[in-house]
Input
Amino acid sequence: MRTVARAHDLRALVDDARAIGSRVGFVPTMGYFHAGHRSLMRAARAENDFVVVSLFVNPLQFGPTEDLSAYPSDLDRDSAAAEAEGVDVLFTPTTEEIYPRPIVTTVHVDGLTNGLCGRSRPTHFDGVTTVVAKLFSMVGPCRAYFGRKDAQQLAVVRRMAEDLDLPVEVIGCPLVREPDGLAMSSRNAYLEPDDRRAAAILSRALHEAAAEVANGERDADSVHRVLTGLIATEPRVQLDYAEVVDAHDLTPVTKITGDVLVAVAANVGRGRLIDNMTVSVGPHSVDVDLGVVARETERV
Ligand code: AMP
Output
């Protein structure tokens, strides 16, 4: 594995790989790897000849009161994990490399960014799409792997790539969970033991809501009540939102039919946690996608 910090060096390595016919897989991250990140690297490794992982804590996507300065990092551990997953290039730029001068050009995806996390983090998605557009430009034609843990981010990035004709195929990968169901997140490192235990209510509430839908519930308000009622039993978990939306355009639905995203966000201790599931309701079937639990060997 090569580790490079300059965009110029990244471009040269990826151009060389493409010149000999390699298909390029790309995994953008903010580091502090866990099994969720590693599952994206593994998917990229399985489906491509040359794998690039970027590790950049992007200041543009943090609000003024958010946790940018406290965001966890451990470059040595992350390098070892990326190497173990067979990554070819780890791109670790400085902030000056990505933003050499104040940025006056940003990418905004309308509509999809208004609700869910966009409501309480109004500048967040512009920060994400701007840095992802820059990273896509540096890496060039590739398949890019994103986790369904960040379902709104995935929808927003996919739409950006389509609208701007970027030469990137955006691929969504399963949400990876801890054994007690908590969605893996670098931010889980912030949780005190009591908060860590309490945080599991989010996935328990989603499981309960999934069971209601599997039993025939089709009223979004009822599913919403199940979620909020259960989450309210944990005083350490301060709900930001629980929403039932169309999985494609992210607009609220009243009836659960077709592909529906059920998403929650909450503040727990110092951390802001998100979780979700997708239910696909057809005339004769209900499919629930709650993601996967990381195997023992994959937990880091
Ligand atoms: P982050 O480093 O948190 O910005 O995440 C980098 C990528 O990893 C994003 O595509 C995330 O959606 C993905 N990711 C983070 N946590 C998980 C998880 N628990 N399961 C699957 N993908 C994840």
Q: What stands out?
A: The pocket of adenosine monophosphate is lined by residues 29-30, 36-37, 39-40, 146-147, 149-150, 175-176, 183-186 (CB under 6 Å). Residues 90 and 129 are 21 Å apart (CA to CA). The mean pLDDT is 97.
